[in-house]
User: Which sequence fits this backbone?
């Protein structure tokens, strides 16, 4: 038996030496902690004007606006559907179309983010938000702060919109590396069922939420220190159904399809590390039924016959890396409602928890400069969504899905403009970009009075 197995190991390492051409023996395989991957040639999947990495709220809007502005665009996404946190993490409640409290006269998120609500309404895809404002509607220009959305109809709609616009789409595909020529990003490396491939693009938009592309391209970034800094924790969302729907108004939470959404067990780890991400997924998943049992106790008797009908496929990840860009939005920008000459979008959402309470803004919204989408040190790259250049407090405001879609729309429009003018993102005329965004129906502060 012993002889047999040592023979097998010996034969295996001989075989391995043969196929890799490396002088590896069993001992060195067991003791080494770095492995030098042999060089290999990668097939080129295609050449595009614009590559969008990540199909969350920001990436979806970025790809759509890039396409609508005439650029040949591909979007890659690791899940087989769009929506990111909204769908993969079941966060089916879009916030941020205007200030949640007075002064709330200005609808600060418009354009594609508004179109999503109007089109969800057409297909009966809206529910009851727990933050509804009664004076507002589902009409263009009169949107409320918040809407509950049907997750399945959202997956359908976002796919429909990108597909109809002629997007090249690659699902089940992860971004693994940046292809650099000096400081210029000229493409990306992806992996999927077909293996490892290269993609080339004139402009790359990082809408991965975690700034994966910027990180690999060498962009400086910052991250909250989980042990010391104030930050927003991650949590596993779940949906509850099977209860008597005549009691639905007695239970607090966003409602769609006769089900209620719950913010489940939370976890506090740096999930850019795969072990931490796995541990967070395991711990929150193991805690979800106990979490629900406590909700049942609290809402008894209304939830007595209810059950969990769905947990999110992916832990809800609130924050990881933030790029260091040409400008960093600050708490003062948000609290004072600052305006910027290169504003490309707005936010009026509260700062969720930094001050230990929900700090509402006392104005109609602050502006977000184009420079926050432009990373330091790297050319040819735009960043959109929750990982743009900002400090903790302002992030806690613009992170809501309506403003992140607006950031995506701005990035996609800018990328297409770069292609048209044959310029890099840092070289384009910002006035041209702002004019185009206004033409598309975006709010970039042009209607702000207070
Ligand atoms: C628990 C929780 C509760 C929240 N509550 C609300 C709320 O009530 N209302 C609200 O409006 N907002 C809420 N938010 C915030 C909001 O959901 C996010 O800030 C927003 O979704 C950010 O959008 P994004 O497109 O930047 O990133 P994400 O939504 O994170 O999307 C990133 C996308 O990129 C893909 N991706 C990532 N890495 C790769 C890779 N390497 N290769 C390929 N694809 C990749 C992901 O699969 C994902 O689809 C909440 C967030 C969380 C986590």
Assistant:
């Amino acid at each position: 038996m012993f002889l047999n197995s040592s023979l097998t190991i010996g034969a295996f390492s001989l075989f391995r030496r043969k196929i890799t051409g490396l002088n590896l023996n069993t001992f060195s395989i067991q003791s080494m902690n770095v492995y030098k991957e042999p060089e290999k040639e990668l097939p080129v999947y295609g050449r595009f004007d614009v590559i969008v990495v990540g199909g969350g709220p920001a990436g979806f809007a970025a790809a759509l606006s890039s396409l609508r502005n005439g650029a040949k665009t591909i979007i890659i996404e690791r899940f087989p559907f769009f929506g990111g946190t909204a769908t993969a993490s079941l966060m089916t409640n879009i916030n941020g179309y205007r200030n949640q409290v007075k002064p709330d006269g200005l609808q600060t998120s418009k354009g594609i983010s508004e179109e999503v609500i109007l089109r969800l309404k057409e297909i009966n895809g809206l529910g009851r938000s727990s933050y509804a404002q009664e004076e507002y509607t589902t009409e263009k220009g009169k949107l409320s702060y918040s809407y509950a959305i049907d997750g399945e109809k959202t997956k359908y709609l976002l796919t429909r919109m990108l597909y109809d616009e002629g997007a090249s789409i690659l699902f089940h595909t992860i971004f693994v590396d940046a292809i650099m020529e000096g400081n210029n990003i000229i493409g990306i490396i992806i992996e999927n069922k077909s293996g490892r491939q290269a993609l080339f693009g004139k402009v790359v938009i990082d809408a991965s939420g975690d700034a994966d592309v910027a990180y690999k391209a060498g962009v400086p970034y910052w991250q909250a220190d989980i042990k010391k800094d104030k930050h927003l924790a991650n949590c596993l969302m779940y949906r509850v159904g099977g209860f008597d729907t005549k009691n639905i108004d007695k239970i607090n939470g966003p409602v769609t399809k006769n089900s209620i959404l719950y913010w489940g067990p939370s976890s506090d780890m740096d999930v850019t590390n795969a072990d931490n991400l796995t541990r967070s997924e395991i711990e929150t998943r193991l805690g979800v039924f106990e979490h629900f049992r406590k909700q049942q106790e609290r809402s008894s008797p209304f939830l007595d016959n209810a059950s969990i009908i769905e947990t999110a496929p992916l832990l809800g990840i609130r924050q990881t890396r933030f790029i260091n860009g040409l400008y960093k939005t600050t708490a003062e920008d948000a609290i004072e409602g600052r305006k910027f000459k290169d504003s490309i979008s707005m936010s009026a959402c509260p700062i969720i928890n930094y001050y230990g309470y929900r700090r509402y803004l006392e104005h109609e919204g602050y502006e977000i400069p184009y420079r926050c989408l432009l990373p330091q040190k790297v050319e040819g790259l735009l960043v959109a969504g929750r990982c743009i250049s900002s400090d903790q407090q302002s992030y806690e405001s613009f992170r809501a899905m309506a403003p992140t879609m607006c950031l995506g729309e701005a990035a996609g429009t800018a990328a297409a403009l770069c292609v048209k003018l044959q310029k890099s993102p840092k070289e384009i005329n910002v006035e041209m970009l702002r004019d185009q965004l206004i033409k598309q129906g975006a709010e970039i502060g042009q209607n702000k009075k207070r």
